[in-house]
Write a structure and sequence with these properties.
CATH architecture: Orthogonal Bundle
Number of domains: 1
Strand order of the largest sheet: 2-1-3
Shape: globular
Oligomer: single chain
Largest sheet: 3 strands, mixed
Bound molecules: zinc ion
Distance between the termini: 36 Å
Length: 314
């Protein structure tokens, strides 16, 4: 396990306060596999959902659990933590009764690293017509637009008391929301440097197999922090203060996207060392420790904001 440090964003953004990380030699990791271009790995999504459960209101949490329990989708079990990776499993879910190939782009927003413009990245946020289910929306929507659409849809269903006819779509909306609020907080899901969100940048940190920058931020660093998602969630939840809650629950998915973008730019891209002759980047311990501190903070914020999002529309 690696200490996750302070959860003060200012300190982390400014690149201060990490002296206690430097010199911590990473434990051996035997990670295999290539980069996944989709999301936090499953651990990251489970951590976000577990933190959210810690901060949801009891009545809304019970409603969430009851709605999910009515689901019979074979891809995952039907509790809030198990469904957190459902939206990523869709693309490999052979035999799944519904295909969601049109949802592939819903997991990220390509904000240009050098000319950031969220509205442009989300194609001016075209509204979804009232008679279109959010789960059936067009494929070119960004993650921010989808969070807004699923939230609005759930809020409408709540107003009419979650009628039986609305429940299948409500369950889909919940499963997408639980996943996509997590994805929005994966910094490399909110930046584009013409490298597919860092998937084309080859990096290597001591004792870890080489992989893409995206995969390191999705999976490698989280597994290094703690390979047990329940334990990591508990540790992160425990240090969230009432002040953190008040601060993080403010804002909108659009603002959260720009925060993720700023984190990606200042913490994932800018501190990269010069590449070697093959264009590969050897990550220093200082880079890795700072990345893990930022990831811990992003997971905490994602959990708190997911709790608020679900409370508001349930
Ligand atoms: Zn995803």
């Amino acid at each position: 396990m690696t200490p996750v440090g302070t959860n003060t964003r200012w300190t982390n953004r400014a690149g201060l306060g990490f002296s206690h990380y430097i010199g911590m030699i990473p434990i051996l990791l035997c990670l295999v596999g290539s980069s996944a271009a989709w999301a936090w790995g499953e651990e990251g999504h489970e951590v976000v959902a577990a933190i959210a459960l810690d901060f949801m209101a009891p009545a809304q949490k019970a409603r969430l659990q009851a709605l999910l329990a009515s689901d019979d989708d074979p891809l995952t079990a039907h509790d809030p933590i198990s469904v957190a990776s459902w939206a990523d499993r869709l693309r490999t879910g052979s035999g799944h009764p519904v295909t969601f190939q049109h949802s592939r782009a819903w997991h990220f927003v390509d904000i240009d690293r050098h000319h950031p413009d969220l509205t442009q990245a989300c194609r001016d946020f075209p509204p979804l017509s009232r008679d279109t289910l959010a789960s059936a929306g067009p494929e070119e929507a960004c993650v921010v637009a989808k969070i807004e659409q699923f939230s609005a849809e759930l809020a409408r269903y709540r107003q009419s008391g979650f009628q039986p006819a609305d429940r299948p779509e409500a369950v889909l909306a919940l499963k997408f929301l639980i996943h996509l609020v997590g994805d929005l907080h994966q910094p490399l899901h909110a930046i584009d440097d013409h490298d597919h969100g860092g998937n084309e940048i080859r990096v290597k940190w001591d004792h870890v197999h080489a992989g893409s920058l995206h995969h390191y931020w999705d999976t490698v660093f989280i597994e290094h922090m703690d390979p047990d998602p329940a334990r990591l969630a508990q540790r992160l939840s425990a240090r969230i203060t009432p002040d953190n809650l008040r601060e993080w629950q403010r804002g909108t998915p659009r603002a959260w996207a720009m925060e993720s973008f700023a984190t990606a730019r200042s913490q994932a891209y800018d501190p990269l060392p010069p590449p070697d002759g093959k264009g590969h980047y050897a990550l220093t311990d200082a880079y890795a420790q700072q990345a893990m501190a930022m990831i811990a903070l992003q997971l905490e914020e994602a959990g708190v904001r997911l709790a608020k999002t679900l409370d508001d529309c349930l």
